[in-house]
Design a protein that fits this description.
The chain starts with a strand and ends in a 7-residue tail after the last strand. Helix 1 crosses helix 2. The chain has 5 helices and 9 strands; from the N terminus they run E-H-E-E-H-E-E-E-H-E-E-H-H-E. It folds into 2 domains: 103 residues, Pseudouridine synthase I, catalytic domain, N-terminal subdomain (Alpha-Beta Plaits, 2-Layer Sandwich), CATH 3.30.70.580; 133 residues, Alpha-Beta Plaits. The protein is of the alpha+beta class and 250 residues long. Keywords: Isomerase, tRNA processing.
Length: 250
């Protein structure tokens, strides 16, 4: 059977899921999509995502690839997928790609957004971190700028994780305020498990004056997760952009 490779572009609200990756005795985003695809295509169909998100973390743009016989009507499959999947998962597009394209290994850049609120909202309590004091954004941005000077971020990685190295090329990292909302933007070629939430939690300690930017630098240089502060809550974190080279798309 002649198989083609396809990319799914999708988004999800992670509040009801135990992360992206399939687990025993837990509902995950990957599992839900694989079940729907397998049902509609009539063959067992696995997918591989651009990266894993933890329990409660969201994605406004995520990609995954799968192999299947040629799909004659991708728009029809798209509509059926969205009809089967619950309200928390949306499939935006099905794209044919070159046979060796890989959603994880071919990604050249990823961007995360972290949302905070400075006052209670009845509409977004599952999608942001409610703060009870106003942090100093200027100090947080001074500390965030230091991230661009380093490549080893072991201090912000989960302790039990299987990686070859802790090196990441961070290309931008900054806070901005819009009314009663605070947004942290960070872009890199790759991220370690738990890295963004650990960075946000530590930067927030800078914002409330418990540590200063020089302390933040010392934490990075320590390469010790115990030196960094508690991770920010999962519900404020969004994988919001994944970029690929044009060559993989047909």
């Amino acid at each position: 059977m002649d198989m083609k490779r396809y990319f799914l572009e999708l988004a999800y609200n992670g509040s009801k899921y135990h992360g992206w990756q399939i687990q025993n005795n837990a509902v995950t985003v990957q599992e839900e999509i694989e079940k729907a695809l397998s049902l509609l295509l009539g063959i067992p169909t696995g997918i591989i995502g651009s990266g894993r998100t933890d329990t409660g973390v969201h994605a406004s743009q995520q990609f995954a690839h799968f192999d299947a016989p040629e799909i004659a009507d991708r728009n029809s499959l798209l509509k059926k997928l969205n009809g089967i999947l619950g309200k928390s998962i949306a499939i935006y597009e099905i794209k044919e790609v070159v046979p060796d394209a890989h959603a994880r290994f071919d990604a050249i850049e990823r961007e995360y957004l972290y949302k905070c609120r400075l006052r209670k909202s009845p509409f977004d309590h599952e999608g942001s971190w409610l703060l009870f004091q106003n942090p100093d954004i200027d100090q947080m941005n001074k500390a965030a700028a230091l991230l661009l000077e380093y490549e080893d971020f072991e201090c912000f990685s989960k302790v039990k994780t299987e990686v070859n190295n802790f090196r990441c090329e961070i290309k931008s990292a900054f806070w901005e305020q819009n009314g009663h909302e605070l947004f942290f933007h960070i872009t890199a070629n790759r991220f370690l498990r738990g890295m963004v939430r650990a960075i946000v939690g530590t930067l927030m300690e800078v914002g409330v004056g418990k540590i200063n930017p020089d302390d933040f630098r010392s934490i990075i240089e320590s390469k010790n997760r115990r030196k960094a502060k508690a991770a920010a809550p999962a519900q404020g974190l969004y994988l919001c952009r994944v970029s690929y080279p044009d060559r993989i798309f047909k």
